[in-house]
Amino acid sequence: MKASEQFALNQWLSDYPDNMTYEEIIAALQVDEWKIDDITVWYLVENNTTDQVAMFIEDTKDAFERATADQPIL
Fold this sequence. Notes:
Blueprint: H1 3-12, E1 13-15, H2 22-30, E2 40-41, H3 50-68
Antiparallel strand pairs: 1-2
């Protein structure tokens, strides 16, 4: 798992299985009738749908990658 992926998951999830990949966790959050006991969202976003939380995670990962890239800011 990339640092940006782990950072993003940790920002929005309080617990997730160590044996799942980032892609598997995002996919699990995006399905209707989501129910994985081992994935727990932070209480701050527990009233959001899990697909919204998946979007928050993806946005955070992208922001991390942009912020840590050695590129000029436009």
